[in-house]
Amino acid sequence: MDLSTVQSKFNNDQYKTVDAFIDDIRLILDNCHRYNNPHDFVAQSGKKLEEVFDRLLLKRPSSTVIVTDSDELMSDDKIRLCNNALIEMNKKKYDRINWAFKQPVDASAWGATDYYDIIKNPMDLSTIERKLNELQYKNEDEFVADVRLMFQNCYTYNAPTHPVHQNAKALEKVFDTYWKKKAHKTSSSSK
């Protein structure tokens, strides 16, 4: 069982009850947990997807209408591409330049008390990762926009001579190099 099969069954009105739909989603998740090493990317993604699914189930009314739109879901290949870009930027070899971008800015710890007055839409690698894992991006362009926002926030707040500004330029170059190479390869292979 997989999400495309669930989508196909839904589109062909093969689900007679909501429970039948839920059972197929549970089957996907159970298979994922059963056949993958718990530390593999697929198993970790399955666990996060299950958490999101469980939260959504808690919110459903007693009579649920299932609405799906495959155009609003990023493909597995694109999710993997985005996740790998995050892995690349978080690599240990880039610790000297990525440290300021791994978590949300702690304005009080850095003495940047006006940070949130100036930066209205803060962004960091952990927030981008959370949004990706919670399937909040409809496509890779939204993912890239958040990565660019993270860098732009840094450039807006920090002068070009500031070390964090310079680190952002270096990390953006890492991202751009990776993204051009991998995104081009992914789009070529999907044709």
List keywords for this structure.
single chain, 191 residues, mainly alpha, 10 helices, 66% helix, elongated, Bromo_chromatin_reader, Bromo domain-containing protein, Bromodomain_CS
Notes on the structure:
It is a single chain. The protein is 66% helix and 0% strand. The protein is mostly helical and 191 residues long. α2 runs antiparallel to α3 and α9 (140-157) packs antiparallel against α10 (163-189). It starts with a helix and ends with a helix. This is Bromo domain-containing protein. Residues 1-43, 93-165 form the Bromo domain.
How many strands, which pairing sense, and closed or not: the largest β-sheet? Answer: none
Strand content: under 5%
Helix and strand pattern: HHHHHHHHHH
Radius of gyration: 20 Å
Note the topology.
Layout lengths: L2 H9 L6 H18 L5 H19 L16 H14 L5 H4 L8 H4 L4 H4 L6 H9 L6 H18 L5 H27 L2
Helix pairs in contact: 2-3, 4-8, 4-10, 9-10
Short description:
By secondary structure, this protein is an all-alpha fold.
